[in-house]
Design goal:
With 154 residues, this protein is of the alpha+beta class. The protein has 4 helices and 7 strands, in the order E-H-E-H-E-E-E-H-E-E-H.
Length: 154
């Protein structure tokens, strides 16, 4: 029997589709994120943007930089700054590992999607390597071939 008191999860709050095109994702990491009340209200309405955002280790802590969450329209003078650095909640050991990967191996941290999990906002970060132009073209070709094969097999 279904739970009547529980609301179904509506899915992702924001997705960075461009990240899958520009980067090859080597590893994924689920992070909690520190938000204010007005930011959560805006996120639930689906107005956030992950385009151009990246992860950075600042002062021994992990932050997401340049993630745009618009100002809450019904807020007051204590409304949030749309482009502020937001702290990510991960273990200290993971922060150290990510710092080593980004400095030594030439990798970068890119936010992939923002979603709800048990009423909490979570951010999925990807450890990524940038794609060259020929890699992007090849990925588009294989995607087109798979789409054509699927069309013919129906």
């Amino acid at each position: 029997m279904a739970d009547r008191g529980k609301k179904p999860v509506s899915g992702d709050l924001a997705v960075n589709r461009r990240a899958w095109h520009d980067y090859s994702v080597l590893e994924k990491l689920e992070c909690g994120i520190v938000l204010t009340g007005t930011e959560v209200k805006v996120l639930r309405s689906g107005a956030a943007s992950l385009a151009g955002a990246y992860g950075a280790v600042l002062g021994g802590e992990l932050y997401v930089v340049q993630m745009h969450i618009p100002v809450y329209e019904f807020g007051n003078r204590f409304n949030h700054n749309p482009l502020r650095n937001r702290k990510l909640l991960v273990h200290r050991k993971e922060v150290g590992e990510l710092k080593l990967k980004t400095e030594a191996k030439g990798l970068t941290l890119i936010p992939l999607r923002l979603y709800l999990k048990k009423g909490r906002v979570k951010l999925e970060m990807g450890v990524c390597r940038g794609k060259a132009l020929h890699d992007k073209r090849e990925a588009l070709k294989t995607k087109a071939i798979a789409r054509d094969l699927d069309r013919w097999n129906r």
